[in-house]
Amino acid sequence: MNRIVRALLNYMIRGALVLVPIAAAIFLIYWIFVKVDSALNISDVIWVDQTGTPIYIPGLGILTVLVILIVVGIVVTNFVTDPIKKWFARWFKRLPVFNVIYTSFKDLTEAFVGDDKKFSEPVVVEVNETGLKKIGFITQKDLSKIGYPGEVAVYFPLSYSFAGQLCIVSQERVKSLNMSASEAMKFIVSGGVSHL
């Protein structure tokens, strides 16, 4: 009887190892989809039935966001010239609080999906004399403008989080990694348990 219980427990653990990551990923994607869709869905404002009850159409919020992104992308690519972009940039810089928030989000967005991706060079940095090393991404190679010539800016993402630390380190302590940026990010975010 004890052997049967151990076998069942073993099967349950193996099943959990397969099912829990799949279920967690599906749940997270579903949760994000529902939250974004409900926050941006305007169907219940536009459409009502005969009794005056709002009609909610699932997915309309996500579809609205996709259409807006595509339309803005077409307009910016084909009709907005560099002088207009520079005029908007100058205007945004005049708004004190908005400027900080706007430029931070703009830089972060461009770091992941822009032409000048910032998290594309994974490195390992020797942190101290004991041999402790951290994996990160070089974000700036020339810091002479802020008084640190010969040093680089390295971003260290935190495991199981989208937060991280930006550190300035000597170039001698930085070594390139033989892996892609996406493999390095997956390895860091998983806490090192992701297979290489």
Kindly describe this structure:
With 196 residues, the chain is α+β, with helices and mostly antiparallel strands. The protein is built from six helices and five strands; from the N terminus they run H-H-H-H-H-E-E-E-E-E-H. Helix 1 (2-40) packs across helix 3. The chain is flat. The relative contact order is 0.06.
- Please give the number of β-strands: 5
Structural class: alpha+beta
How is the biggest beta sheet arranged?
5 strands, antiparallel
Bin the strand percentage.
15-25%
Q: What's the quick description here?
A:
The protein is of the alpha+beta class.
List keywords for this structure.
15% strand; 6 helices; five-stranded antiparallel β-sheet; flat; 196 residues; alpha+beta; 5 strands
Topology overview:
Elements: H1 2-40, H2 43-46, H3 60-78, H4 82-93, H5 96-113, E1 122-126, E2 133-140, E3 151-157, E4 164-170, E5 174-176, H6 181-189
Antiparallel strand pairs: 1-2, 1-5, 2-3, 3-4
